[in-house]
Amino acid sequence: MPEFVSRNARLEWASLFAAEWTRLAGGRADHEFLLDQGLTLVRVVGDRPPADVARQHFENTPEPDQLVRDPETNFTALAAELGLIKAGDRLDQTHIAFAHGIAELCAAVGDGYGDSASVSAGQHIRALYGPL
Questions:
Q1: When you count CB atoms within 10 A of the terminal residue's CB, does the N or C end of the chain come out lower?
Q2: Which one, of 117, 120, 94, 98, lies nearest residue 109 by Cα?
Q3: How far is the C-alpha of 64 from the C-alpha of 124, rounded, in Å?
Q4: SS3 assignment, position 121
């Protein structure tokens, strides 16, 4: 009979997997996707250290750029859509800092949601749109 692993232990393993993968990607990764990947992988290779699995997964991802977090691209597209800049122009550092500030304000609201056994909405927002 397989050994029982609690939901919290699986989530912790998946979080460690996602954190190591993100570190390997220089902080630029889609944390939500990687957390889901970790929750899938823990059922198969959860007896191995999550950092080891993350390294192997990172090295064997055919196009790791597909999993890279790039909030500035999202900010730039939104600014162009709203007419703040012309399509194809880049945001300056003041605009980017402002966008990260908005993300932090939203994340502060999200900090009050969720339970202590999982990532809060605020942590998730910071992972996606906070500074690298």
A1: N
A2: 120
A3: 20
A4: helix
